[in-house]
Protein 1
Amino acid sequence: MSAVHVRDLRKEFVRRDGGFLRPRRRVVALNDVSFDVARGECLAILGQNGSGKSTLVRLLSTLLLHEGGSAEVFGHDVFTEPREVRRLVNRVSVEASFFKKLSAAENLSYAARFYGMTAGETRSHIPEILERVGFPADRRTEPMENLSRGMQQKVALARALLTQPVVLLLDEPTTGLDPRSKLEVQAFIREIRAAHDATVLLCTHDLAEAEALADRIGILDGGELVALDTAEALKEGYGAATLEEAFFAATGHELEAA
Amino acid sequence: MRGSSLSFRHEFISLAGVVERNVYLVRRYIWWDLAFFLWTVANALTIVFIAKGVEATGGKIDVNRVTTTLLIGAVVWAYLGIIFEILTETVGWERWEGTIEYTFMAPLSRPVHLFGMGVFAVLYGVVRAALLFGIVAAFFRLDLAGADYASALVVLVVASISFMGIGMMTAVLPLISPEKGMQFGFIAQGVLLVVSGVYYPVDVLPQAMQWLAVISPATYALRGMREGILDGAGMGAMWDEIWPLLLIGAVTVPLGLEVFRRGEIHAKRHGKLKRSG
């Protein structure tokens, strides 16, 4: 059984240009996307802004309803069995969203309760997990708004890991981080995979990150998955020397344009 | 059996988590909450002074009784405002902080999530209402020797079940309109109280509004609290107010959950379950 099984997944949004009386139009965000992710695998999805990466992550997070196709996480239908899927999945996105006045420990407690962890359990577990992501112990009770973006992203990783997800959805987790924080986050993603046998779906527009972390790479363009293979096979298939060239050959545009 | 008790435990921990988070937020925003409370006291005083004003302009009224009647109206007005505000924050605040996606993708049932917000709203609202009542009553040196506070409190708590149901309906509005939805809590509060005799007997309302008063839980809450505090009516005499409240609650809570469920489906279909709206 695949960890993630997606078949002909389609998502459209209704948009109105301007005032209330203007006609509505349908915009296709994902167009019949199909792929599988094996247990323990890391699949990177590369694409420009607006290519449908975040829509894909939000569909698998049970935050959107689809217009067609299917999506399953360990055999559970994302749209008809959302609670089962929610127990298996967690995510880290580009925005490390927290209650800004609350501390890292308070934010993590709030998240942990929804996964059935009692105050007694989180009291020991939260300091452990924050230590593992390299978060300084003396800043645990400081409001999140006082922390740098890199620090906040570490707490976001701790939040995802705290719930022991078997599928981790990463939506541009290192965008906007300084090089050192970026490397720390990437090292931690490797550790999660090794230690927890977690399956990772990494959406990014960072080619080097995709190549460094993923077993296979998919290229999403205009809501369509135009290529899916290992980095080496993609380069070979498009006769490209680099992944960047392969991306250009597959989509007709540069990734940096994003 | 074991599975269901584990599931019940999980739901209980989740509910406690929602309450706990709100306690953390109150602690962090305590000075803002105190400033808002001062505004509520000032607002209550402007209403309660009306009784003194009527007497000063030659009106023949029982000032103690009218002052207490107005004060109960002002307290219920403030209480209802807090209930609706906190329930509407279920979506509004989380959207503003950006945590909405994480909370709505957690394995937490929506009824438990909403009840958690409701339980905190009632606890916080009752403490705030008691303080407001005590401060304004002391300010006017009201004679409340015969008051039965326990029966008044029971009526308010039972009415809160219905208020929670209506609050769940208003909570969905920021999902549909992120920009304007929050304000609808105030509209519900105003409409509910105007037909419920907040500062006057329901009999003075036009007939159509009196019909609405029959289905408004605030009518029974106000009447029961006034009977308890003004007339010293005990629990035994409160049944006439409590059974309609239980009946209205049995309708508004499932209705509120269903309205929220449909709103969540709408938001998921149109991609509104996210920070920016």
Protein 2
Amino acid sequence: MIKRLNTPILFFILLFLNLFLIALQTKTSSGENVVKYIFFKMTSPLISETALIKNYIIEISENFRDKKTLIKENKKLKREVFKLKTNNLICSRIKLKNAILKKMLNLESLYDFNGFICEVISKKFDVFSSSITIYCPKGKRLKEELPVISYNGLVGYIIHKNRSCGEVELITNSGVALSVINEEKGIKGIAYGTGKNLLNVNYIPQNKKVEKNDIFVTSGDDKMYPKGIPVGIVVRVNKGEGIFQRVDITPFVNFPNLEYVYILSKNEESNLNEKN
Amino acid sequence: MRRIKYLSAIIFLSAIFLQSLLHRTFPFLIGLDLYTIFVYFISKRTDLRKSMIIGTLSGIFEDFTLSYTIPIGANGISKLIVSILSYQLTKILNSSNLFVEMGVIYFISIVDKLTVIFILYIFGISFHFSKLLIFVISPITNAAFYLIFFLIANLKWKE
């Protein structure tokens, strides 16, 4: 091997070997090892680039980790938001119920009669009959033919009952009739249910001037409902050709949104009648 | 040839041994550099490449064993140059005259020491002025010692 090498090459190899050995031991003015210093100078760009890449990788991994935690946190927050939304909904519902119940309780002072509040548990609206089922609170007893009202008007009467529940026939049900009056003008009539969200008021003489937006309330003549309960508002007047005119009224009560109803007790009703 | 090899080995070992002992026993021999004489001896009897390698290795060995202040490798370079120089001088002069050889020894010793000083200077390694004196004494001591060595060696060869 030695024979193959050129003398100058061998010389330089040996020279560099010695120089390397010297360089290994010498130190710079700052006290650093020369070889280390040279090696550092040679490799520093590579090291800095590597450090840069390492930093990038660390940053990416941290971002990834952050992303993971953020996803987790996001999921958690979403759950919390959903929970809060539900709570909010429940609160708003409770608020609404509270407002309804408050209005129901105000009925006593408004109409000067007593009764008790029942919750509506089911509703049935079809072509043949419309009714709602109510749940009777403990300590209270339902009776058939008891009038049922809401805070904004007449609902109907109890048609069937059992221990804790009762079925209420709505005033809009076809076949239901009640005596109504427009107190301002003193116009009386009989309101019939149509099976739709509409009542027909008959037996109003032609000479009586009924206008749109006139309000009809119960007259109490039918001995079924106490006097003064709002029934509906006039939406259309049909004079016709007979001696009576026909008036269409829309009930005040929004039956599909009905949640609580007020049951008038018979005694109270009789008292009310006595008062009247 | 085999004889030379054995002789070289013996001289090398004795150089190591004596180099470390002589200047302690005889303080005036502090400037003696047997490795230079050994390199000259090798250069004279072998080819350039071998003498370069052996010279460098012996220089490094010297640095490892003897030098405390001089960095390892400095003597390696100086001995490398010495080996080339001594080979070339031997080739040019082509003389077995004792005094010529002593002159060569003297010259290569000066070159050797100057090279070491130069290397130390390049690498910024400070050295005491007293060391410089050793470097001045060293060529003379080497030349003188070669005389003794030559006489001993010639005696052996004659046998």
